Amino acid sequence: MPDPNSPSDFEPSVIPIEPSNLQTFKPVLPIPEHLVGEIQSKLAYVDEAIARAIVPASGDQISLVLHEPVDAARQAELEVKVQRVVASMVKGSIKPKVQVLEDYLDRRVAYKLDPMDELLARGEISQETTGVFSLGPLVTGLIGYFEGRFLELAASFGAVAYRFPTLIPARYLERVGYFRAFPHSLSFVTHLREDLDVIDDFSQHAACDDHGALVGQVSYLPSVSETSFANIQTLLSPAVCYHLYFTLADKPLPGGKVVATAVGNCFRYEAINLVSLERLWNFTMREIIFVGPKDFVLENREIARQRMAKVLEEIGMAYRVESANDPFFIGEFRKQVAFQSAFQLKFEIRARLPFKDSTLAVGSYNYHQDFFGRNLAISLSDGSPAHTGCVAFGLERIAFAFLAQFGLEPENWPTAVRTAIYPV
Ligand code: AMP
Ligand code: ZN
Q: What is the pLDDT of residues 364-418, one digit of tens each?
């Protein structure tokens, strides 16, 4: 069975390895096994020259596959940057104790292949750009099924429904320390400045280069440049529940407790780690969100886990629920991970991917203590800050894991799922 903190989430796409574009060296400190996947995923953000980073499970070597060969000075520069990541993440790191709350990884599942190839071949999904996919009827039907189950779960708590925007103001994210914790995955939104000359220039010269990047190069004319764009005040939202916390900010919590649910587009830029439906730049999350006193939030997170276990049993999915951490950036990583682990703040549903004998997080059970309550001044009746927690499901991921376990033919699917989507 796969290693609990499997690095397999971060297997990048296959790039041909030539001796001339391969750079291999020893890490400044040996990388402990529990950090191999985390460090490999962070190497994606080290330098644009890196097409793929490989850290073996032994953690005693780092290989960089580069887009093209570079000279010795540039190699030295890349190594220094990589070693900075290693030193920052390894020094003083303590292996978090992995707590397993449910283990059904060995449930028998019928399928063994990577569904990606078949989904693409049948036109059931199509890639628009890196990490951005359109989903056809098969995956859409499955997501609809899972959404139905999540809505039942939400209704069992009397959750009220919200709809949140896809954009989120920069000042919201600043207020909850997002820039410090997850700068690497931010997606920014801007528009042309309100200036007739800038807009005219853009309309005449904007075009995409060979890589799909927007350029406006016309030799002697002004080009589409950073100065054409307005200051960034808005980003693409990285999570759903933040929006609820902001609607509740700076006032007493109505009725002392809130349970809400919403689905929304979320964006996390994951560079060369963006492969297949497993890791998307633009994905959809369904959340059930609890706001109130500590016990209320913790009890409901636990009840949600138990109710969800029944759903996953009925479907027959192979999975495990275990403690986890968020993908904090290197400077914050060690401290935040130790904190999340010590206070059991995050558990993930990791579904089995038989084709690579590994697991994929399809959902999470989160408790934020009074972090949002304090930072956003959401107060309980006694004036203390509210506690928050959320149960979050990745819709594309749960559909992908289901297809990896049961294949693309509905007649091979568990009856509960097949008859719900395709009633006879
Ligand atoms: P998190 O808030 O990080 O626990 O995310 C909740 C769920 O969203 C995860 O368990 C995944 O199922 C899904 N998710 C997170 N990041 C991605 C991504 N880059 N691509 C697809 N799904 C994701
Ligand atoms: Zn959340």
A: 999 999 999 999 999 999 999 999 999 999 999 999 999 999 999 999 999 999 9
Q: What is the pLDDT of residues 147-165, one digit of tens each?
A: 999 999 999 999 999 999 9
CB atoms within 10 A of CB 380: 20
Other Cβ atoms within 10 Å of 344 Cβ, number: 14
Neighbours of 47 (CB within 10 A): 15
Residues 6+ apart with CB under 8 A from 46: 53, 78, 81, 82, 85
Tell me, in angstroms, the distance from the centre of ligand 1 to residue 363's CA: 7
- 25 forms bridges with which residues in the sheet? 62
Determine how β-strand 282-292 pairs with β-strand 319-323.
Answer: unpaired
List of residues 6+ apart from 146 with CB closer than 8 A: 393, 395, 398, 399, 402
63: exposed, middle or buried (C-beta count within 10 Å: 0-12, 13-18, 19+)? middle
The token duo for 80 is 């220094």
The structure tokens listed for 383 are 């004036």
Q: State whether the beta carbon of 9 lies less than 6 angstroms from ligand 1.
A: no
Distance in angstroms (rounded) separating the CA atoms of residues 394 and 406: 18
Residues by chain with Cβ below 5 Å of ion ligand 2 = 241, 287, 390, 392
**Ligand 1: centre distance to CA 407 (Å):** 22
pLDDT tens for 41-99 read 899 899 999 999 999 999 999 999 999 999 999 999 999 999 999 999 999 888 888 99
- Report whether pLDDT(217) > 70: no
CA of 285 to the centre of ligand 2 (A): 9
Q: Using DSSP, state whether 120 is helix, strand or coil.
A: helix
Distance CA(382)–CA(332), nearest Å, equals 32
Q: Cα–chain-centroid distance for residue 111?
A: 25
Q: What is the reported pTM?
A: 0.92
